[in-house]
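forwarding from the other thread:

> can someone predict this with coenzyme A?

sure thing
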Amino acid sequence: MLKFVAWMPNNSIPEFECRDPQINRYYKEQLQTDIDVRACKAFFLFQDDNVVGFFTLLPHSIKNTNNHGIRKREHKGMGKWLSGVLLGHFAISNEFCGQKHSSGLKYSKILMFYALDSFECIVRNFCGVALLLNPINESVRDKFYIKEYGNLFKKYPTDDDYMYALTDYVLAVLK
Ligand SMILES: CC(C)(COP(=O)(O)OP(=O)(O)OC[C@H]1O[C@@H](n2cnc3c(N)ncnc32)[C@H](O)[C@@H]1OP(=O)(O)O)[C@@H](O)C(=O)NCCC(=O)NCCS
């Protein structure tokens, strides 16, 4: 059975390993502290007792763009900074990577649905112009975020490789 858990501070996180060494290092060395001091909120998906994957959400702002097209189209709420919520880490464990749940959906799709749903809870109770993410490398950006979620997340035209989905758009997708 699938189980989705918003992790509470001061509860030990489970063992986890994915294919990305940078995320594994962060998981081992930093995530527990970040959860405990509420620097981020971490969410876990389990299949029975096994960890399928996790992601984090945290407040974040990026420098706004001077791109005229974007400013004209999406000027609402955009000051000098574009403030929103960062999908900080998004990872599927080695065991479940590339695998499908018995429903036929990829586990990564189920985890992404929960990420959007958790983002919705945050912005319904607080604020945030966009859901932001900063892909860990170009391969993930192109082969995962653009390939599978290119309609949702767009590249943000600043120097630092951010992608974004406007909150209004995410809420519309979830309807
Ligand atoms: C990204 C991820 C959640 C996608 O899971 P998935 O939908 O089950 O799909 P896959 O694992 O088959 O990955 C999709 C593609 O992205 C590539 N990819 C995934 N993570 C990658 C990484 N960290 N570095 C380089 N390429 C990566 C895969 O090689 C694959 O490419 P392919 O289609 O050419 O085989 C999962 O691969 C993962 O957890 N990766 C490690 C953590 C990570 O990099 N998260 C992104 C943080 S920004």
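The chain has one domain: 2-174. thats all i got for now
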